[in-house]
Amino acid sequence: MLTEKFDVIIVGGGGAGCAAAVAASVAGARVAMITKEPAACGNTRVSGGDFALPCVVDGDLPEAFLNDLLAGGEFINRPELASVMAWMGRKAALLAECMGHLFERDAGGEVSDRIMFAYGGHSFGRTIASPGRGVSFCHSLRGALARQGVASFEDCIATRVVTHGGRVAGLVALDLLRGEVLLFRCPCIVLATGGAGWLYYPNTSCTRASTGDGFALALQAGAELVDMEQVQFIPFALTTPDILRGAVVGEPATGGPLGRLLNARGEVLLERFSHMTRAQVAKAMAVEIEKGNATANGGIILDLKPNLTSEEGLRARSLTHRSGISEAVKIAHGFAAYNWEEPWDVCPSAHYNMGGVRADGFGRSTITGLYAAGEVMGGLHGANRLGSVALTELFLFGERAGRDAALLAKAKSESGFPGGQVEAETARLKSLYGKKGSVRPAHLKRDLGRLMWQEVGPAREEWKLRLALEGIEAIKRRLADIETCAELSYNLEVLDAVELGFMVDAAWAIAASALERRESRGAHLRLDHPEKDDSKWLCNIIARLAPDGGKVYKEQIVAA
Amino acid sequence: MGISLKIEIFRGDQAGGKLKPYVVNAKNGHTVLDSLFQIYENIDPTLAFRCGCRYRKCGLCAVMADGKARLACLTPLAGGMTIEPLKGLPLVRDLVVDRRPFFESIGQLALYLPSREIGEDFQKVIDRDERKRLMACTECLACLATCPKFNFRAASEGIAGHGKRAIERGYCAGPYFFVKLAQLFFDPRDKADRAVQAKLIGIDECRDCGLCYCPIGIPLYTGAILPLLGG
Q1: CB atoms within 10 A of CB A75
Q2: I need a labelling partner for A223 at 20 to 30 A (CA). Which of A293, A356, A444, B78 fits?
Q3: Å from A101 to nearest chain B CA?
């Protein structure tokens, strides 16, 4: 079995992972990146490329950004993380360009206030675009990895963090191209695995790789997760054709001044919703869908035609087209729909996890040597994420975590290594090939997707969440009884099985945290507790796995 | 609902393989990727294919559909269709090609800007439309399958020997590499001579060819190859 030693290993090859890998290497560490897809092929690649860049526009001081972050997050942001973003966010953009990226420029070649614009929740023009959108970042990310000489293990999935005496000692991974187990010894690991949108498959805009691997790896290593109940749903995603289900084609702002949402009976559900939050609109739709008033494809009708009679409405259409967000409507419903002349049906889509691994301003989790950066890290955005801040987060916290991990690795002496954990994990992985059982992993993934969508979706209630927890336990039991084919080379069933192991842990954390937070705040909406309750719930929800089972509890927020 | 369509998919690896027939249930708007999911989930779980975003942006699902290099997520399914892995690329299994050598090539060709210290301010850069157009490349590698002079062995050797010798005569490394070189060629911040690099990896073979194409419409010949040729 291949065993290699490194100082720092990065798990996940997106924006945060690449930023961390480069930073750790620049700081003198011997670095490897383990990524289950080719590097930079996840959600960073498919993002819109809009980046929060504070302190360009006059008056946009760090204090203003901090206020917007906290207001948007409804005040349960981890204060230290929000402060780092507010004061250091600008540096993330400079870093991205150092890595090779190029943001929009004005006619004179400068980054000036002329090209900045304001996403919802930002009180200043604090967002800059990228020519070529998300994929343009990825040319630089891959280039920066190569420039820095980071050892990259693509098509390799990390399956277990190995700990010894409460500290990171190494990592077990599976080479998907060959069906071989790899073992790495390292004192520091940076988890940069992104989110868990695929838990809601097919009602997600996220890529197939978004199976919550890092949330589960962290839980299994004994680390804590924070505010996992905060899952962002974007209200307007396609329902058809099958392969495009979940593709986001609009925001509340897309509604323009006169857009309407109608149920299948033609009754108006919502009007004038362009200033509502993503969560509020998604909830209204989910409640209506549950009542049985959805279209044949399980959606709600978006009628934007009234906008065409007003100048402001026509401007809204223009902005929507220029942003590119609704391109897929052309394929799904044709040009008339794309031009707002005809309505089409939409459904909420799981888009982003605000919650994640509990970490400090350098990405340090509660387990020594285990770091988190990017979407997998929780607490920066509180209960709701402002647009464009996710990309800034990748570079900002990726760099900080990578750099700190390199320093820690230098300071550490060689630790012991627990052979038992490795043997058990290796045996488990090998047993996944050609396993005899009674359910295929692909079907279990579908079952989990249906369960999470129905019971832990945009509109939540206690009885549904309890049902979800039982359902997740049942899927966990069935996971022990999966049947897989024996192909050693690129076995999708084995990949699905490994990911399912992660997904059930991430699903538990989300459902259990949603059950615990008995109020509605930000993206988390409880029909049985529809109001926000600062007197009891101005706190974080912590989730962790203990030897005697999963634990979820609230914790007071301590000021930075 | 839906209609039954018979299609054929390549099953096999570097050692060999054959086209296997499948019958899929296709609804309106179904794509090749839809059928791959359907087959893997309900008919034949041994099928291997790549997929990421499901809609046009990640570049992972490129295949040959009826002999044309396409993105599976964008290709409407048609009865009698033949689906094969990208032609000429190192095959892992079924529709999955090995992308690791392409990561290696980034380092070998220095497809990145020179290192620099992070500054206090943004550099003044007059960006170019020619560069912006090329940045939309999703690195799906489909264009390599459309190049009549592309040969993986020759390309790998040529790229590995870069700077010391040119690629073997009669071959070129393929349009993907010329797009990557051209992105930097049009970047005012780049310092290397990308046109010379392009020559070393066979761009002269591209003169008067123009047969390569991109499934998402990046102008390979006019946007990358001609400019590097000095045209």
Answers
A1: 18
A2: A444
A3: 9
Q: Residue-wise over A204-233: b if at least 16 C-beta within 10 A, else e?
A: bbbbbbbbbbbbbbbbbbbbbbbbbbbbbb
Structure tokens of A203? 């009602």
- According to DSSP, the β-strands at A31-35 and A2-5 are unpaired
Burial of B6 (0-12, 13-18, 19+ CB in 10 A): exposed
Query: How far is residue A78's CA from residue A558's CA, in Å, rounded to a whole number?
Result: 8
Please answer whether residues A521 and A537 qualify as being in contact, where contact means their C-beta atoms are separated by less than 8 angstroms: yes
**Would you state the structure tokens that stand for residue A66, as one six-digit string?**
């901090």
A437: phi then psi, degrees, rounded to nearest 5: -175, -160
Whether A492 sits inside 8 A of B138 (CB atoms) is: no
Contact residues on chain B for A437, CB-CB shorter than 8 A: none
Contacts of A331 in chain B (CB under 8 A): 29, 74
- Read off the DSSP letter of residue A380: S
Inter-chain contact A110–B122, Cβ cutoff 8 Å? yes
- Residues A177, B34: C-beta atoms closer than 8 Å: no
Q: Tell me which of A207, A211, A245, A490 to substitute to probe the interface with B (most B C-beta atoms closer than 10 Å).
A: A490
Tokens of A116: 């900045």
Cβ-defined contacts of B180-184 (< 8 Å, 24+): B180/A139, B180/B106, B180/B109, B180/B111, B180/B137, B181/B109, B181/B111, B181/B224, B181/B228, B182/B130, B182/B134, B182/B223, B182/B224, B182/B225, B182/B227, B182/B228, B183/A139, B183/B131, B183/B134, B183/B135, B183/B137, B184/B111, B184/B112, B184/B113
CB-based contact A177 B98, cutoff 8 Å: yes
CA distances A189 to A2, A497, A501, Å, are: 18, 23, 20
Helix, strand, coil % over all residues of chain B, rounded to 5: 35, 20, 50
Least Cα separation, residue B93 to chain A (angstroms): 7
The burial class, CB within 10 Å (0-12 / 13-18 / 19+), for A550 is middle
- To the nearest 10 degrees (0 to 180), the angle between helices B100-108 and B175-185 is 40
Whether the CB-CB separation of A376 and A194 falls below 8 Å is answered with yes
Residues of B in contact with A147 (CB under 8 A): 107, 110, 112, 115
Structure tokens at A246: 């979940």
Nearest CA in chain A to B44: A485
Q: Are B39 and B9 in contact (CB under 8 A)?
A: yes
Q: In the numeric block, which tokens belong to residue A529?
A: 């507790």
Which helix (H) or strand (E) segment holds residue A543: the answer is strand A539-546
Contacts of A33 in chain B (CB under 8 A): none
For residue A171, the cross-strand partners are: A161, A184
| Contact (CB<8Å) B52/A442 | no
Q: Give the position of tokens 């979800």.
A: A468
Q: What is the mean pLDDT of chain B?
A: 96
The contacts of residue A69 (CB under 8 Å, 6+ apart) are: A77, A82, A85, A86, A380, A381, A382, A386, A389
CA–CA separation, B204 and A432 (whole Å)? 50
**Mean pLDDT per segment of 10 residues, for chain A of length 560 residues?**
91 98 98 97 93 95 96 96 97 97 96 90 93 94 96 98 95 98 97 98 96 98 98 96 91 92 96 88 92 95 97 94 89 94 97 98 98 98 94 98 97 80 96 98 98 96 98 98 98 98 98 98 95 97 96 88
Q: Chain A interface, mutation test: which of B122, B138, B177, most A Cβ atoms within 10 Å? A: B122
User: What tokens does A288 get?
Assistant: 């209506």
**pTM of the complete model:** 0.97
Which residue in the set B31, B107, B112 is minimally distant from A100, CB to CB? B112
Distance from CA of A242 to the nearest CA of B (A): 7
HEC profile for B97-162? ECCHHHHHHHHHCCCCCCCCCCCCCCCCCCCCHHHHHHHCCCCCCHHHHHCCCECHHHHHHHHHCC
Asked whether the beta carbons of residue B107 and residue A328 sit closer than 8 angstroms, the reply is no
